[in-house]
Please model this.
Amino acid sequence: MILLLALITLIVFPIPSMLTRLYLNDVSPIELMDFGSFKLDRIFLGLEFGVSYALLSIILLRMSAFQEMPVKVEQLIKNMNLTITEGLFISFCAGFGEELLFRAGIQYYLGIVATSVIFIAVHGYFSISTPKNSLYGIVLLPFILLLSYGFEVWGLWFAIAAHFAYDAIIFISMIRDQKISAE
Model:
């Protein structure tokens, strides 16, 4: 089921941005894909940024404050019982689909800050009813803000690479931890 949701993210999430930008701003889907920013230095910069922030997040997630969270992000991912290949596939789908929706679409109309807050909220990382669940959102918000600013400077493929790398490292770390604890 989670792989189907990832595929839907990859294919369906870009559609609202493509249609909205086409009809309101006369930006074709090809232009929206921003192939001009598909440059190795920007992609590597995005990968480096995503990996670095993921490693920082992993350190923070292991702190005692996160162990007390009512619904731990780590536990949700572990419950999926994914392979590393599945984790990488989900990471790619999320990086591609969500960045086209949020950065190339919503951010164009709402700006960096509002789009970043919406991104975190849609993922369920802000919670009024259980404020401790918002801790991960607070950790993730600077990453999303910086990724959003990076999109403005280095383009869509920087953002896709950063998002993919962040998710991939988080998934790999938690899948590895799950396998170690099972032994």
The chain is about 80% helix and 0% strand. The two ends are 26 Å apart (CA to CA). Residues 84-110 form the longest helix (27 residues). The mean pLDDT is 91.
